[in-house]
Design goal:
Strands 3-2-1-4-5-6 form a six-stranded parallel β-sheet, with helices on both faces. It folds into four domains: about 200 residues, inorganic pyrophosphatase (n-terminal core), CATH 3.90.1640.10; about 130 residues, Diaminopimelate Epimerase, Chain A, domain 1 (Roll); about 80 residues, no CATH class; about 80 residues, no CATH class. A hairpin with a 3-residue loop joins β9 and β10. The two termini are about 50 Å apart. About 30% of the residues lie in helices and about 30% in strands. By secondary structure, it is α+β, with helices and mostly antiparallel strands. α1 runs parallel beside α4 and α8 crosses α9.
Length: about 500
């Protein structure tokens, strides 16, 4: 859905979820501004049992001049829009929320639209835009505004609101994993003094009490050195503070903190050991019932109530806590860890494969930036920092993934060709100069090459989740899931890799 599709309506309500957070307020503010500038009669509202009381949110509303109204009855919508008492809005847009979830009060309108970044758990109306891979709804609205040519650059208050929305919904950016979130974070020009003011009003006395009680009730699992803690309802930022504190405890290598709300569960994950990446653990916990992500040390996620209930789980604290206990237990039991330096593969259990002749993209890094310079490539899987040397090569894989090679290895496995290059990914990778922050598309520099391989390989399909620490990267594992392949080069059995199933099938074929 495009925002311009909403312009056929005149009387519009923008509604966020009950007990709004900073992301809901920011995204609602942005959408309302867009519609007002297009001449629409629009009002931004929220419902529920309580008005906003948190200090940082009240400051946000006043300092950034967010025109938002608390409503308890249908008739108030007509009053706010200046309509007759029994008249209903032409359009109601739920922002950062969806009707059918437990955290939003339902009102009547002639048509309903949805703009959200949470998982879809109920049928959506025709007018909807949901991108559950984003860390905040602020990012989604920012991107939709850009698509309409509506700039927020000259509106410091709006830019600050969007920045703060992402900051708080991603636990101080620790749960960001999609490049679009990173783009907004890096491109917005915001007021740092206002952000600091909001941060310093973030924790109330009640939330301090919540944190203390939660830490006292934490569960510790000695066999795998992790803790689980349930908190009373609180902001994601508070949840992050609790998990940060928990990780400081002796013998706690990783932890999960969670809080239960009307419409779902928010969780925060931390890890300080190389065998557990926080983002990977968060994704595992949320699989099938929500979404998770972040960074190797700090991550988080959301679980949707309706998706949890579809698994025939009761939505109460004891059932939810048991769900987390079982997920954490499964995670640690269902793992194989391979240290390549101490591993000798049994090739008698592996099949022989040869490389297919496939096209991928490449460019020599020094053709983009001078030797000795430092820059970042931003792609769907995250940021890759590059120090440019004479023989640094940038390659773009069959799914649009970015990886780095040395020129000698490139010459062994690839052959340049004259055919045109077509990028297969959904997010166009960019080059970001770390000195001045400017970015540009990588694609104009990319040329085509053919993967020719270097002899046959041995490979077998993984039957369980496997973490591989290679000799080149002994402190960072590659994760393989059942169905992926573990691969050994035919000429050097110490060169071991895990390859995604889709990539493997496109890249190799069996030797009969």
């Amino acid at each position: 859905m495009k925002l311009s599709q909403l312009l056929k309506f005149d009387n519009i309500i923008v509604q966020c979820h009950n007990t709004p957070d900073a992301d809901a307020l920011a995204s609602g503010m942005a959408l309302t501004k867009y519609l007002k500038e297009k001449g629409k009669n629009v009002c931004f509202v929220y419902g529920g049992n309580f008005e906003i009381t948190k200090s940082n949110l009240k400051l946000m509303i006043s300092d950034l001049q967010i025109d938002v109204h608390y409503v308890g009855h249908q008739v108030q919508l007509a009053q706010l829009l200046g309509l007759r008492e029994q008249e209903i809005p032409e359009l109601l847009i739920t922002i950062d929320s969806q009707y059918g979830e437990g955290n939003i009060r339902k009102f009547k309108a002639k048509e309903i639209a949805v703009i959200d970044h949470h998982q879809v758990s109920n049928p959506l109306p025709e007018l909807s835009e949901v991108r559950s891979y984003l860390a905040s709804c602020s990012t989604l609205v920012w991107e939709m505004l850009k698509e309409e040519g509506f700039s927020v650059a000259d509106d410091l208050k709006l830019s600050t609101a969007l920045y703060y929305g992402l900051l708080t919904d991603s636990n101080n950016f620790s749960e960001i994993h999609h490049p679009m979130d990173m783009d907004m974070r890096d491109e917005l020009k915001y007021s740092s003094s206002i952000i600091t003011k909001f941060k310093n009003s973030n924790i109330s006395q009640e939330e301090l009490r919540i944190a203390g009680i939660a830490l006292l009730g934490s569960e510790y699992y000695q066999d795998n050195h992790y803790s689980i803690v349930k908190t009373d309802p609180c902001d994601p930022n508070i949840l992050g503070i609790i998990s940060d504190m928990l990780l400081e405890v002796e013998d706690v290598d990783c932890c999960l903190a969670f809080t239960i709300h009307e419409g779902g569960v928010k969780l925060s994950v931390r890890s300080c050991v190389k065998e557990v990446k926080a983002d990977e653990l968060a994704k595992f916990i949320c699989q099938g019932v929500g979404n998770g992500g972040g960074h190797t040390v700090k991550a988080g996620g959301s679980i949707i109530r309706s998706l949890l209930e579809k698994q025939e789980l009761e939505y109460n604290p004891s059932s939810i806590q048991q769900f987390f206990r079982e997920r954490m237990k499964e995670y640690f039991l269902d793992n194989e860890i391979i240290e390549a330096a101490d591993y000798t593969p049994d090739i008698s259990e592996m099949a022989v494969y040869k490389s297919r002749q496939i096209n991928i993209g490449y460019v020599k890094a020094s053709d983009i930036m001078p030797v000795g310079s430092h820059f970042t490539i931003r792609a769907l899987e995250g940021d890759t920092e590059i120090n440019v040397s004479e023989d640094t090569m940038i390659l773009v894989g069959v799914k649009g993934e970015i990886f780095i090679s040395m020129e000698s290895a490139f010459n062994d496995y690839y052959k340049a060709c004259d055919c045109a290059y077509t990028y297969p990914g959904e997010y166009e990778p960019t080059i970001r100069n770390l000195k001045d922050g400017n970015s540009t598309s990588l694609l104009p520099y990319i040329k085509s090459c053919v993967f020719v391989g270097n002899g046959n390989i041995y490979a077998k399909e993984l039957q369980r989740r496997t973490k591989l620490f290679t000799q080149c990267h002994p402190d960072d594992y590659s994760l393989g899931r059942p169905g992926d392949f573990i691969v050994v080069t035919g000429t050097d059995l110490s060169k071991i890799a895990i390859i995604d199933r889709d990539v493997f099938m496109k890249t190799y074929e069996s030797v009969e």
